[in-house]
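Hi R.,

Here's the chain you asked about this morning:
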Amino acid sequence: PISTALGMGLLGIGLWCLSHRQMGAPVAAIDAIELDAAHINGATLIVVAATSIAVALTGLLFLDKSILDQSSSSLLQRMNANREYIASDLDNCTQYALLVSLEPEFQMVATGLLHNADNKQLLSQARQLAEPLLARGFIGIALDSGGRSQTIAGRLLPRTIPFVQLNGENGISLAWDKDYVLRVRVPLKGRDIPGGFMVFEQILPHLNKIDDEENRWGGTGIMSMCVRRNQQQLQCFPERGQSGMFVVPDTINGKPIPMAYALAGQINTKSLVDYRGHHVFSAFGPIGHTGLGLVLRMDLD
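And the predicted structure, written out as tokens:
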């Protein structure tokens, strides 16, 4: 432990000082035999002192390496568990919305409303089908066609809230509005309703919980989740120290930041400089096939 290394270091320094004191004693104060004994004793103390200091330095170096190795393993396991859980949560919520949309009665009513949005009977039927879903995590269900939206149940997020496309598809996207919200746009079948969609938005409580826990981890622990905005910039979701979505460059001083490695599909741990210019120890990796990258990092010091 560090106490042993420091103790050996202090012992070595003390012995070194003692050896210089003995070897520097006045010659007149001692006879020849005592002088030889003092030199031998001083030399012995120097050897022991040097050995103690060397052991102390070796111990501290070993301790430093052990801490980084343990942190690397722990951080990588934690990051992998989070990215797999987030990927599974996003997929499960997407599949749930798709399953609801395939209900034949729902499809029939939605198709009818796209042809005649003022049909009160169809609108009433649609609401009877959609409103119970609000108790199961959905916050808004609507129909969309030609840029016009008709809400059936709940309320969709305002158009001013930016959604980030997942999987490279227009139909699945993620937004932040005090909570993570998943939007799934399902095209309605039928040649006579081109451009018609059922739109489902739902809050992701599990992702919200992970995000809250990881951004309270230790004194500097941060979980970052981003997508690539363009070749030089990343669009990132809120994190510790950032209350809203924000854009960062994927390099700093010409070197990739941890998230750049994650979005390149790499899974690893490294000591790097993040977008703030802080030296951090980080674990990074992609979140399934969503196009999202995940980074867990802490300030290296």
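The mean pLDDT is 83.

Let me know if you need anything else.
M.
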